[in-house]
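Example 3.2
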Amino acid sequence: MTPFKRSLLYPAALLAVVLFPSCKPAAAPQESPAKPSPSASPATTSAPAAPAAPAAPAAAATTAPAAAAPATAAPELKDPVATVNGEQISKAQLEEAFRTAVEASGVKGDDLSADQKLNGYRQILDELIMDKLVAKAAAGEVISDEDVNAEIAKLKKQFPTEEAFQAQLKEAGQTPEKLTTALRTMLQQQRWMQSQIKDTDSVGDADAKKFYDSNTEEFKNPETVKASHILFMVNKDDSEEVVKQKEAAAKAALARAKKGEDFNKLAKELSEEPGAKESGGDLGFFSKDRMVPEFAEVAFSQKPGEISGPVKTQFGWHIIKVTEKKPAGTVPFDEVKDQITAYLKSTKQREAVQGILKNLKDSAKIDSTLPPAN
């Protein structure tokens, strides 16, 4: 997703994302069998993920269905598609927003069924309606040119060069003038919303402890080990001769390690794992279920400091050195108190935002010409 197509075309939808990035402890994804390295993130052993927070208002780019259905004719739209407190939302506006959302999702619009298209139109129209309501409520907020320029500078930092930034701006159908206007609107909405939700996110130590005590399963850690490895890759189509050559290379690496050569330096020199030259084969801490079984069984049977013989997995031949082990247990409250507090504050803030948006919508006069949902 580009920084433009989603965030600048739908500032109201972005609002909760800008204000409230997720604060829950992050969990690393399960290792994919397709990757040549059984790598794991050390972050997963320090604190397990708290339950997911309520979702922020959905951005329009999320409305396209995940799977395409048989293509049918698009539903006929009336013009205007809606009026919000007397202000119109045109058919052209909705169709452009829908097209942008579908393109951003990677789904082909022609592959969508009539029901899918209509459902997408409804969701995006809700976004456009909320955008109008929030924009009007926030119109009195004064945003300086310095504020806007600072946001543009932040965006530019996401690109390697000014030329790359300008190219992406053009690809997204934006101009510098449109960008400036969209950012000013976004900042107005952000500042207005911040003024509405201040003092709604108070969380004390007792609140955090209550959450901890009620969710102890979320803070349990399995046994983990920290290990490094040297990988000699074997592809599934390689001949038996190649497999034996790679095994011989693994045995030679093991002999050098046994003689006292630094294991991480050997990994940088010999390992065929992508990124090994930078990581030295270090996998960090991982639980047993994060690795393919053959690798895990050996790693978890070793003592710290031990180096394994060649281990064959679907990725090739590994030499494994375990450097540290942590037993299973529950993360102490003091280690996760700050994370829990941030998570609870984020939840309160999001609930406050959702309540404000609901009140805006409930108090508005909204007429839609789209067919109602069944």
